[in-house]
Amino acid sequence: MKQGWRFLLAAWLVAVFATAGALFIGEVMLMAPCNLCWYQRICMFPLALLLGRACYGEDRRGAVYALPLAAAGSAVALYHTLLVAGAIPTTWIPCSAGISCADQKLEILNGIQIPWLSLLAFLAITALLTVYLKRTSK
């Protein structure tokens, strides 16, 4: 096993749990995602596959390809978190019809909202991939 492999494995596990959580909320709890949630899913779902393949093959390139997805997901999740917290004006809401991005009804662990968990997952993946890439650089 190469040095730093456990950071890549941890990033993959975070992506798998976040993907499973998003699928559970959408498919089992039957809660339709808002527009910003869809953009975060577009970033997170490929991470679960890409990082799993990188772990299996101990391939550093998988982390290189995954890092921009994690950074983009972090940016969208940060925007969504600030929107839900009321730090962004409601005129900047990207959804004009359907489910509102600013109206989050699901809270877990006594008040933690889904955009906050998404932001935490993306930031953790970004940090783990950054550490992995630094430790495996030549």
Radius of gyration: 16 Å
The secondary structure category is mainly alpha
Give the overall shape, derived from the CA principal axes.
elongated
Number of strands: 2
Task: Briefly note the CATH topology name.
Answer: Bromodomain-like
Report what the structure shows.
By secondary structure, the protein is mostly helical. The protein has one domain (3-136): Bromodomain-like (Up-down Bundle), CATH 1.20.1550. The protein is built from 4 helices and 2 strands, in the order αααββα. It has helices at 5-28, 35-57, 60-85, 114-135, and strands spanning 107-108, 112-113. The chain has a two-stranded antiparallel ribbon. Helix 1 runs antiparallel to helix 2, helix 1 (5-28) packs antiparallel against helix 4 and helix 2 packs antiparallel against helix 3. The chain is elongated, with a radius of gyration of 16 Å. The mean pLDDT is 88. One of its GO terms (molecular function) is protein-disulfide reductase activity.
List keywords for this structure.
138 residues; mainly alpha; Bromodomain-like; two-stranded antiparallel ribbon; 69% helix; DsbB-like_sf; DiS_bond_form_DsbB/BdbC; oxidoreductase
Short description:
This protein has 138 residues and is mainly α. 69% of the residues lie in helices and 3% in strands.
SSE diagram, text form:
Blueprint: H1 5-28, H2 35-57, H3 60-85, E1 107-108, E2 112-113, H4 114-135
Antiparallel strand pairs: 1-2
Transmembrane segments: 38-56, 63-82, 114-133
InterPro entries: DiS_bond_form_DsbB/BdbC, Disulphide_bond_form_BdbC, DsbB-like_sf
GO molecular function: protein-disulfide reductase activity
